[in-house]
Design goal:
The chain has 53 helices and 21 strands. 53% of the residues lie in helices and 9% in strands. The chain has 1454 residues and is of the alpha/beta class. The chain is elongated, with a radius of gyration of 48 Å. Helix 37 runs antiparallel to helix 41. The longest helix is centred in the C-terminal third of the chain and has 57 residues. The strands form 4 sheets. The protein has a 10-stranded mixed β-sheet with strand order 8-3-4-9-7-6-5-10-11-12, with helices on both faces. Strands 15, 16, 17, 18, 19, 20 and 21 form a 7-stranded mixed β-sheet that branches.
């Protein structure tokens, strides 16, 4: 069970996108085909009836395209063809992939679907079968289905904006799918994006086309699907082709042929279904937003816009695209009252001139009404005017339209802003959020944005994180709970750190189960996920075990060491827990937590933003270097390791930049910053982190080297020449004469000089304040006494080093004397002194091994010791000396022991190079020598191939069967090696061969064996071959390889020369630290210091004295001041880097290109604007002429009516502006307040459509000759449809477009009472509340209903409010205040029946009856609620108006 739990835990932690493998026998392709055959259906005609031709059916298909059953039915004759009866659904036979061919070889998915297919099935087809990711936005592009001209600039703007919004938001684009009209423009935009973009993802473009009008659809038909179907693009056909730039096609089939617009209903239902899906597959949240983009178009496009806006879908109309889009765009800028039938006449004649003659009066009236309703819904209409700068680009216009719609639809202000922000985060559109959401109107608290911050972090949206931080998000409040940070770690992408963390959690689970076995199940279940203790352990592993955990263990509220506990134990007096909480809170740095979270996932942008928020920024950058380089070292992915190292170098440059700024701003503060203990990063220092992270460039900074030099010199001044220090080492009394300068004296002198300068300036300027100013450090600084000066001299690491150099030379001198002059059988006093001397050296090496001021631990300290080359030489020299000493004390091995000691002397001499590594001149050269030694090692491997090859071949040719190994080695290896250095052999040439120099049988041990001889005692080997072999060997070995070695050395020197200084400065630290901790006395006197340390630390058990030179814990106040100063320096550094980045050549080129593009676009826009202004002026002039003609006509009619008809009747010609001139010349003084709801096209709860009534035709006084409304009553009644009876009842609000009673109870006014029950609730401020009841749709409304008389309450309230409360209200109805009485705009109103509402206000005071009513409301179990009177109350518009009137009675705002 434990293993199973661990596996599930790892699966959850790694957040793998793949699900568990299901063992199935079906292949994925067969599964796909089976699913489509079972769920997707098509339509086909099952009854053939002769249509326009004998071989063509009424459905439009030919007889050969019908199934056999349909032909047989036609022979039998089963009645008149009816689409509802004679079209049936069968499994689809057209699905799979389409290959369009051509250059791009585009392949898309397609399926032939029935018009009755449910949107759920289609959505499942796209998301599950076609593997399309759910959209974050739905863009429905509609407009002209035929090819139309689009201006080049507008076309580019539209395509660029559409692709940008789809790319940034992850949207689906839905079009008609054919290669004509607006669909073609969308396809071209997708094509251009796919050709120019290097991104892997594609833009999802779904085409919903009518199956019956698709050209070449026969190639798509196959019962088992086509994978792929090769579709020819025949654009010259009568029917349209599919667009090859779409990614998916749904071909809608209603069983007919040649009938357009079949897909409209299914497309509308699919878009509505998708818009109701939850955004991002979240359990809670906003739904997928939808927007309609309109270009060109005709009557069908107008219907689409009207329907979409009735469904609360915002529409973006592109002005300049032509036809109906331009009509709406020109009318949108006018008040509804000015959008008259005559105006629509003119606009249609202008923009739809080719179709204008086919328009009927009724059609224009209907279009006018729809355009008026569209304009009235201004929150859903956005006009993109390409010639202006209102929206900038189409993508901005689309997103602004969605935001505008969401603001209007939100019931509360905060809810509206939250919805917009959710959309902006999902779309990753920071520009829209900055301009539309975070404005002066929106007031955000930090707590209101915590969810947005989490979404931006988990969704890897760094620009949003930066925007939220700029707008008031407090990281301390955001990460106040540890659960938030743990949840962020659970949301990490699949990376190296998460895999390591998962293994650590899995390893901790069995132990945790054992420890917490006795605890309850709830607690144990909560502790199975990622905890901060796991993160802390893993981070400590990456930083190093010398650090402390950055997060406290789960069993402790705060983790501190024993020194902290000792110092705090005195102040803890019964209130220990609160103090620990305060300490833990002081330790927490939320910016550090987020920065660490971003670094471990190697997220450059997020880590950059969070680093800027860190207070301890230098330590944070160096810690990031250490973590990243450690992960790169442990990781197995080479590419991932490269990214980690690049990011580590990036943060090292940040650390360098900030520290350089700090050092220039204050040297002493910068030095304290290096050795300050950082509580945020495991109580280590910046200097230690830089060394562990191998940040050579940082350590090589002048500020770091100045600190190291200061530590190297101790209390001596860094300006003292070496010769003075050397003289004072021997003649120490000179230190009392001022011959040697000490740093305290130097600081006192500088302060005195500064004070003198201040006094001088004060005496000249007469400033009293300056003369009184004193440096506080002068009072604490004291000069060193005599003993302190002597102690500071000999405790200086510099002096210790010089004494050790002298001691080491003395040791080598003594060693050489013993080896060459005094190496007796019995050890002499000099030799015994040598042994004592070496013992002191060994004891010092042991002390260095166990000395661990940084808390590395013995294992890490041992690894660090062995990793150093000089320590390896130390160990080797000591081991060889011990072996030589043991051999030397043995009689038989006496000489062998001396040989070993002589070799050991060589090692000791090589160790001498380490002493000179501190030198600025010799130190870098030693580094070069070490690198060259490595190069030479690999060169020797290459050289050995040639040496062995030539040596073995030469030895085999010359010598026959030599059995002496030493002479075989000499001939095969040693002699060829000497040839490289010029020792040419004589035994390969007949002329120089000497028979006396060799032994015939190889019996002489001092001579080599002679070569094979002939009968005449001459060498038998082929002379020409041996000479050629020698020449070739010399050519390659002497010339080629040696010159190659020289070239390698030269390359290494050139490569290392630039870095040797940096490497030397980096390695200098260890030497300085070694001599800083080293006892003052040199060997062999150092053994006395070791004896003292042993007695003090081991026998007396006293703690080790810690130096504050490399590690300093500052007081809290001083640390806060230092960190504040560091933050200021960081800001200066960021500002300077930003300025440098803006001044780079690349940036200047980009800025110049942007400016040129902006100027070009502006010139094109101004050119279009100028032409548009000219057209508008001509139109205005034409309108003025028409108005003048109207005025003259009116004057002449007035003169005629005054008896002046005797004059010759001559009228000025009137320019017709429409088909019905009598209607266009009617002038009506329209008043505001025309009913709107009562003129909606669709009457509620019926299939009846109203007659369109434009705004100007609402009043009964206005002549409307074309007005022919239909009659509707929900059920038969005594009123009937008699015209005379209906004429007795006329709606006081004007025409509604429908006659009869409708769904109302009777003709004429239908009375209704709305009751506004209010009370005052005192909760610190007087709050006015109203009583709301729950209706059938579970919405809260005002109590009310139909009545026969306004003096009584509606009887329906008895059921909703209860009998007791109803009777109480009836008793108090007489006390009610009449708020409003009159006609109400209602969707149920007709020309002959309407609703009149009486609004009564019943205010409850503190009387006994009022208390009873309040108590009854409290017992209603939620069906009755008191709500605050506010402008966002969630009521309908009529009830909101009533509530607003009541609020005015009490001087409240609603």
């Amino acid at each position: 069970m434990e293993q199973t739990g661990g596996s599930h835990l790892i699966q959850n932690l790694t957040l793998s996108a793949s699900t568990a493998l299901k063992v199935v026998s079906l292949t994925p392709t067969f599964q796909h085909v089976t699913w489509i055959r079972q769920n997707i259906r098509k339509k086909e005609c099952c009854f053939f009836e002769i249509g326009i031709r004998e071989d063509v059916c009424m459905c439009g298909y030919s007889k050969s395209e019908h199934v056999a059953d349909a032909i047989q039915t036609e022979v039998m004759g089963s009645g008149t063809w009816d689409p509802l009866t004679h079209i049936r659904e069968v499994p689809t036979d057209a699905f799979g992939d389409i290959s369009f061919g051509g250059l791009r070889q585009a392949t898309t998915k397609y399926a032939r679907v029935s018009t009755d297919t449910t949107p759920e099935v289609l959505y499942q087809l796209m998301t599950e079968q076609w593997k399309v990711s759910p959209p974050n936005l739905l863009i429905s592009v509609t407009g002209g289905a035929k090819n139309f001209y689009l201006k080049t600039r507008l076309k580019n703007v539209f395509q660029r904006g559409l692709i940008k919004v789809a790319q940034t938001t992850g949207a689906w684009i839905i079009t008609g799918g054919t290669n004509t009209g607006v669909m073609k423009h969308v396809g071209q935009a997708v094509r251009d994006y796919s050709l120019s973009s290097s991104m892997q993802g594609q833009i999802v473009t779904i085409g919903l086309a009518t199956w019956g009008v698709i050209h070449n659809k026969e190639v798509l038909v196959h019962s088992q699907g086509c994978f792929p179907a090769h579709y020819p693009m025949d654009v010259k056909g009568r029917l349209p082709c599919l667009d090859n730039n779409h990614t998916h096609f749904l071909l809608v089939d209603d069983g007919t042929y040649g009938r357009y617009g079949v897909e409209i209903d299914l497309r509308s239902r699919l878009e509505k279904f998708i818009s109701q899906k939850t955004l991002g597959n979240k359990a809670v949240g906003v739904t997928i937003p939808a927007v309609c983009v309109v270009l060109d178009g005709g009557g069908g496009t107008l219907n689409t816009i009207y329907t979409a806006m009735l469904n609360d879908t915002p529409c973006v109309v592109l002005e300049g695209s032509g036809r109906i889009a331009d009509v709406i765009a020109h009318a949108a800028g006018l008040p509804v009252s000015q959008v008259t039938i005559s105006l629509i006449h003119r606009l249609l004649k202008k923009f739809l001139s080719l179709e204008y003659d086919n328009f009927t009066d009724l059609m224009i009236i209907e279009w006018t009404k729809k355009i008026q309703d569209i304009i009235r819904m201004s929150h859903l209409l956005t006009v993109f005017r390409g010639g202006g700068d209102s929206h900038g680009d189409v993508d901005v216009a689309i997103l602004q339209a969605l935001f505008k719609a969401s603001r209007a639809s939100a019931s509360q202000v905060v809810e509206g802003w939250r919805r917009q922000l959710e959309l902006a985060i999902v779309w990753n559109r920071v520009d829209i959020a900055a301009t539309e959401i975070f404005t002066d109107e929106s007031q955000w608290k930090s707590s209101d944005l915590h969810w947005a911050m989490f979404s931006a972090l988990a969704g890897n949206k760094p620009r949003f994180v930066s925007l939220l931080l700029e707008n008031g998000v407090s990281l301390r409040e955001f990460l106040q709970s540890e659960d938030t940070l743990c949840e962020l770690y659970k949301q990490l992408p699949n990376c190296f750190f998460l895999r390591k963390l998962a293994k650590r959690v899995r390893a901790a689970c069995p132990r945790r189960r054992k420890v917490f076995a006795t605890r309850n199940r709830v607690h144990s279940s909560q502790s199975t996920g990622i905890a901060l203790s796991h993160v802390s352990d893993e981070v400590r592993h990456l930083l190093g075990n010398f650090t402390q955990p950055i997060y406290p263990p789960p069993t402790m509220m705060y983790h501190f060491n024993m020194e902290d506990a000792t110092s705090l134990s005195r102040s803890l007096s019964g209130s220990q827990a609160p103090l620990r909480v305060d300490l833990a809170e002081a330790q927490r740095d939320p910016a550090r937590d987020l920065f660490l979270w971003a670094v471990v996932q190697k997220n450059r942008e997020l880590s950059e933003i969070t680093w800027e928020q860190c207070t301890d920024c230098v330590s944070a950058a160096l810690a990031a270097c250490k973590i990243l380089r450690k992960m790169a070292e442990e990781g197995s992915d080479a590419d991932e390791a490269v990214e980690m190292r690049d990011l580590a170098d990036h943060f090292e440059m940040h650390a360098i930049g900030v520290f350089t700024q700090c050092y220039s701003g204050g040297e002493e503060r910068a030095k304290r910053l290096l050795v300050r203990v950082s509580r945020n990063w495991g109580k280590t220092t910046c200097l230690r982190l830089a060394l562990e992270a191998n940040c050579k460039s940082f350590v090589a900074l002048s500020g770091v080297q100045a600190l190291l030099t200061e530590i190297w010199c101790g209390e001596l001044s860094v300006d003292n020449p070496v010769w003075r220090v050397t003289i004072c080492m021997i003649f120490f009394p000179l230190i009392y004469t001022g011959f040697l300068t000490y740093r305290p004296d130097e600081l006192i002198q500088k302060q005195n000089e500064k004070s003198e300068d201040i006094k001088t300036v004060a005496s000249v300027t007469g400033s009293v304040l300056r003369s009184k100013a004193k440096n506080p450090d002068l009072t604490t600084m004291k000069s060193l006494n005599c003993w302190s000066r002597l102690a500071c001299l000999y405790s200086s690491p510099q002096v210790k080093f010089y004494w050790n150099i002298v001691s080491y030379f003395a040791f080598l001198f003594l060693f050489a004397v013993v080896l060459m002059m005094d190496f007796q059988t019995m050890p002499s006093p000099a030799e015994i002194l040598l042994y004592v001397w070496l013992f002191s050296v060994v004891s010092e090496e042991v002390r260095q091994l166990f000395y661990d001021p940084d808390g590395f631990g013995f294992h890490k300290k041992a690894r660090m010791y062995i990793r150093e080359l000089w320590n390896i030489l130390d160990v080797l020299s000591i081991v060889l000396f011990i072996i030589g000493l043991v051999f030397r004390l043995t009689t038989k091995l006496f000489y062998a022991g001396k040989i070993i000691l002589c070799i050991d002397f060589v090692v000791f001499c090589l160790r001498l190079m380490a002493i000179f590594s501190i030198s600025r001149t010799l130190g870098p050269k030693i580094i070069i020598v070490r690198r060259m030694m490595m190069d030479m090692f690999f060169f020797m491997f290459l050289l050995s191939i040639w040496v062995v090859a030539y040596g073995v071949a030469k030895q085999g040719i010359l010598i026959h069967n030599d059995s002496r190994l030493e002479w075989i080695f000499r001939g095969a290896v040693y002699e060829p090696y000497l040839i490289i250095f010029g020792n040419v052999p004589t035994n390969v040439d007949y002329s120089e061969f000497d028979l006396d120099s060799c032994s015939m049988n190889g019996t002489d041990p001092l001579k080599p064996k002679c070569p094979v001889l002939n009968e005449n005692q001459t060498p038998a080997f082929p002379e020409w071959l041996t000479i050629i072999m020698l020449c070739v060997y010399l050519l390659f070995a002497n010339i080629l390889l040696l010159n190659l070695l020289i070239a390698i050395f030269n390359f290494t020197f050139q490569e290392v020369q630039d870095n040797t200084d940096r490497i030397w400065k980096f390695q200098r630290y260890e030497l300085i630290k070694e001599y800083h901790s080293r006892p003052a006395a040199p060997p062999p006197f150092i053994i006395l210091s070791h004896l003292y340390i042993f007695i003090r630390n081991v026998l007396l058990c006293r703690p080790t004295l810690k130096s504050r030179k490399f590690r300093t814990e500052l007081p809290h106040v001083e640390e806060e001041e230092l960190l504040s100063w560091e933050a200021l320096m960081k800001d200066r550094y960021l500002l300077s880097t930003q300025q440098q980045r803006s001044q780079t050549m690349e940036r200047c080129i980009v800025d110049t290109a942007q400016k040129v593009n902006a100027i070009t676009e502006r010139l094109e826009r101004e050119e279009e604007i100028s032409s548009a202004i000219l057209i508008k002026r001509l139109a205005r002039l034409e309108e003025q002429v028409v108005q003048s003609a109207k005025g003259l006509q009116w004057i002449m009619e007035s003169l005629k009516s005054n008896g002046l008809a005797w004059k010759e009747e001559q009228t000025l010609p009137i320019l017709p502006t429409g088909k019905d001139s009598s209607e266009t010349l009617e002038s009506v003084n329209e008043t505001e307040g025309f009913h709107v709801k009562a003129r909606q096209f669709h009457y509620p709860n019926s299939k009846v459509t109203r007659f369109p009534v434009p705004e100007e035709k609402v009043p009964w006084e206005v002549s409307f000759t074309s007005y022919m409304p239909s009659y509707f009553s929900s059920e038969d009644n005594v009123d009937g449809s008699d015209t005379e009876v209906l004429e007795n009842y006329r709606n006081p609000g004007g025409r509604t477009g429908i006659r009869g009673r409708g769904s109302l109870s009777h003709l004429g006014p239908n009375l209704q009472v709305d009751l506004v029950i209010t009370r005052l609730r005192d909760s610190g401020r007087s709050v006015l509340e109203f009583l709301a009841v729950e209706d059938k749709q579970q919405k809260m409304v005002l109590p009310g209903g139909p009545v026969e008389s306004a003096e009584r309450l509606p009887s329906t309230l008895m059921r909703t409010m209860g009998k007791s409360l109803y009777e109480k209200l009836c008793e108090k109805i007489a006390e009610g205040i009449l708020v409003f009485e009159g006609y109400v705009d209602d969707v149920r109103n007709t020309d002959n029946a309407w609703i009149e509402t009486t609004v009564l206000n019943l205010h409850l005071d503190s009387s006994e009856d009022s208390e009873d009513i309040v108590n009854m409301v409290a017992c209603s179990r939620g069906s009755l609620q008191w709500q605050e009177v506010s402008c966002k109350n969630g009521l309908c518009s009529d009830q909101s108006d009533s509530l607003r009137r009541v609020a005015m009675l009490y001087n409240r705002n609603s």
